[in-house]
């Protein structure tokens, strides 16, 4: 799980670590819902040019695509709390 915060509004957006699965299952719809329009167009273009082969390759890069999208817009990546760090010492 990745979390990003908009420094001007304080809004927080979460990106699942399973983004690759959602891109594999739903394709460009995932990017459209997240507002990553260049990758909506890229996904469609690559699917046409590669005759569908890119549908198996594009999901591999989904997490990096989402991280770069938010960071390029000036959002700040927040540390994600691990469940094991919240446990009390014995």
Structure description:
- The chain has about 90 residues and is α+β, with helices and mostly antiparallel strands.
- The protein contains 5 helices and 3 strands, in the order E-E-H-H-H-H-H-E.
- It has helices spanning about 20-25, 30-35, 35-50, 55, 60-70; strands at about 1-5, 10-15, 75-80.
- Strands 2-1-3 form a 3-stranded antiparallel beta sheet, covered by helices on one side.
- A hairpin with a 6-residue loop joins strand 1 and strand 2.
- The longest helix is centred in the middle third of the chain and has 13 residues, at about 35-50.
- The radius of gyration is 16 Å and the shape is elongated.
- The model has no long low-confidence stretch (mean pLDDT about 90).
Essential attributes:
5 helices; 90 residues; three-stranded antiparallel β-sheet; single chain; 3 strands; alpha+beta
Task: Give a brief description.
With 90 residues, the chain is of the alpha+beta class. The chain is built from 5 helices and 3 strands, in the order ββαααααβ.
Number of strands: 3
Along the chain, the helix and strand elements come as EEHHHHHE
Low-confidence stretches: none
Distance between the termini: 28 Å
> What value does the average pLDDT take?
90
| β-strand amount | 5-15%
Radius of gyration equals 16 Å
From the spread of the alpha carbons, the general shape counts as: elongated
Q: Main sheet?
A: 3 strands, antiparallel
Helical stretch tally: 5
**Helix/strand/pairing class, anyone?**
alpha+beta
Describe the strand arrangement of the main beta sheet, using strand numbers: 2-1-3
User: What level of helicity do the residues show?
Assistant: 40-55%
